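[stage:ingest] chain + small molecule (manganese (II) ion)
[stage:ingest] validated
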Amino acid sequence: MTALTGFAGQDEGRRAAPAPASVPLDTSASAGRDSEAITEAEWRGALSLLQGAGHVLIFGHKKPDGDTIGSLLGLSHTLQGLGKQTTLVCADPLSDPLARLPGAEGILTQLPGFSSGAVPARDGVLTSDGVARSDGIHGAYPDVIVTVDVAALDRLGAVYESAAGLFARLAVLNIDHHYTNDRFGTVNLVDPQAAAAAEVVTLLLQRLGAPPALPAATCLLAGMLTDTLSFQTDSTTARTLRLAAELVEAGAPLAPLAYQLFRQRPRGNALLWSQALGTLRFAAGGRIAWLEVTREMLAAAGPGADSTGLSGFTGAITGVDVGIVIEEGADGPIYVGLRSQSVDVAALAARFGGGGHRRAAGCQFPPPTTVAEAREAMLSAVEAHLTALAASA
Ligand SMILES: [Mn+2]
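[stage:predict] done
[stage:export] tokens:
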């Protein structure tokens, strides 16, 4: 099972993070529900693509979080309600609680073959009519591609290799909220002031004349909750809350979702915390907190255990400016997660080839870098950064 790295904001920059923490409050939203970042022509283009499609192929990003999966499922349920066929693809498998969202069982990790013959057959895939096939028989060819919460095509992960031919042939609707989105779509619905891609999807469905009902509303609310840490981030606007309220009115179960997404945790993760917190140390007079997650700890914690929430924990300790988690990835690299409420950790991560956002970022060190080497490199870089900041203050 893939070690899901948890939910946006609790995690670091090896995945897309939520909208940047520096996004100002969207005062324009109090006047209306629409986005000023998306033009009328873009909305019309998106509606035209969806209305004209009989079969929509929807992609989420690799290492999925609640926003990409909630957006994908919310859109899919609604389109199915309009009589359209959907095929859902995400390169990595889901773990709980995302795997429990309605419709999650239908998400494929590989691109199915399609009947035009233009795309190479893939074995052992589900066709879009939901029938498992291993004989190269394919589903109907899609009319349009939609990506949700995907800032750049490389975020699709391994499935992009098999999907490249489709991307070359079909119109692509790119729905996202990352300000770094590279606008790869034929039509781009990119609103950096949206707290979640699910917020943009909800606006789109309203314009489509199909405001989310159950079960779509549940999925979209899961997306909003994930990226806003239950409406706690400063990317959360009045518009976010209004749209979320509409989802709750449609029947989305706010309290159970928030509990499952943010308070309930797998037993394996709790066991991992019990080991990892034992390595918690402070540096720079308490302004840096760091801890380590080793392969041994991950193995002892059991299958599926991941370090969700640990980086946020280190960064939120009183007096700490930068929290660091150094994790020995099962697949080789050393992953470093950086969190801060005061320092631009994306800039720090960028020095090591990583990135992310001001308050949540990450980088990785390829093998044969050891945990100790990664730790020394990060501690000295962060200490020097804090010293430089103090000197310039
Ligand atoms: Mn997102």
